[in-house]
Design a protein that fits this description.
alpha/beta; eight-stranded parallel barrel; Oxidoreductase; NADP_OxRdtase_dom; AKR2_Oxidoreductase; NAD(P)_OxRdtase_dom_sf
Length: 327
């Protein structure tokens, strides 16, 4: 971690999903496309969760992100109506942007924040065949990147010949296919995916993974993916709000933010941007103020080694994340 001391705004040559001149921050819509999510304090960000209000709010956030220069937007089938909100916004505004989406989870909360289950995971061919045309219809176009949502070794998706064959077809059509990861074995999943071949060719070229100063365990594997020519997208850089003023911010991070006259989330994101393998880093902001605070990361220079002592065990980190309430 300590060798990277990088200006957050500098582009990386392997950032194939970034438009020329765009900053390396993108906007993730996980907390904008549905009324319930597990970010700390999420309920306070969305006082009106009617469909009309949520759509208008998402458009406000997308407008602010666009005005700030962001050109990469991340959605998924399970993010409620995120793809629909994003697709209609792009068509109405006439914007050209890079879009990533994901398949493998189905949203089942019925637009409620108090649902017992919010999304159901299924990595089979039937789900892929159902969700790909849904994504096309919602976005009004093919996504630039299409990822298995939270692939793990346990689901067997990286061994499923039928799924891999279909993903290889999409890759051959020009879509960048890959996977997102989660859980304490992210590194193992990434390394397995790097070895996947279909008819001798590697179908995957994108990975989206969690990396932050509390959970850096996937870093070496993500560096390997980057070295192999993959685009690396980082999610949860502020640990679902735990590295913001709403969480119990570690003193080292709070001190670094105070010294730089920014909020803790900006320093946390700058630490991600300082990684030489991180091509795109997602902001999960839910309000304009949060987005403005996140954007400050682009002007910071930090040494991630300052925060090495903050790392949790992967098992401990993911257990804590799993305990976060959906609000």
């Amino acid at each position: 971690m300590g060798q990277a001391r990088h200006n957050a705004g500098m582009p990386h040559p392997a950032s194939h999903l970034l438009m020329p001149g765009a900053p390396r921050l993108g906007l993730g819509l996980a907390a904008l496309g549905r009324p319930g999510y597990l970010n700390v304090g999420h309920a306070a960000d969305l006082p009106d969760t009617s469909l009309e209000a949520m759509n208008a709010h998402a458009w406000t956030m997308l407008d602010d992100a666009w005005a700030a220069g962001l050109r990469y937007f991340d959605a998924a089938r399970s993010y409620g109506l995120a793809e629909e909100f994003l697709g209609s916004w792009l068509r109405e505004r006439g914007h050209v942007a890079r879009v990533g989406s994901k398949w493998g989870y189905t949203y089942v909360a019925g637009w409620r924040t108090d649902a017992d289950v919010h999304e159901v995971k299924s990595h089979d061919r039937a789900t892929l065949d159902r969700q790909w045309p849904q994504t096309l219809a919602a976005l009004g176009r093919a996504p630039d990147a299409y990822l298995i949502h939270s692939a793990t070794l346990e689901t067997g998706v990286l061994e499923d010949a039928s799924v891999l064959s279909r993903l290889a077809e999409l890759a051959a059509s020009g879509v960048r296919v890959g996977l997102s990861t989660s859980g304490p074995r992210q590194a193992d999943t990434v390394r397995r995916a790097l070895d996947v071949r279909v008819d001798g060719a590697a179908p995957f070229s994108v990975v989206q993974a969690t990396w932050n100063v509390l959970e850096p365990s996937a870093g070496a594997a993500l560096a390997e993916a980057h070295a192999a020519g993959w685009t690396v997208v980082v999610k949860e850089g502020v640990a679902n709000g735990r590295l913001t003023g709403r969480g119990h911010v570690p003193p080292a991070l709070a001190a670094a933010a105070y010294e730089r006259d920014v909020t803790p989330d900006a320093v946390a994101l700058a630490a991600v941007l300082a990684q030489p393998w991180a091509d795109v880093v997602l902001s999960g902001a839910t309000t304009p103020d949060q987005l403005a605070q996140n954007l400050a990361a682009l002007r910071l220079t930090v040494d991630p080694a300052e925060f090495a002592a903050l790392a949790r065990t992967p098992d401990g980190y993911w257990q804590e994340r799993a305990a976060l309430p959906w609000t």
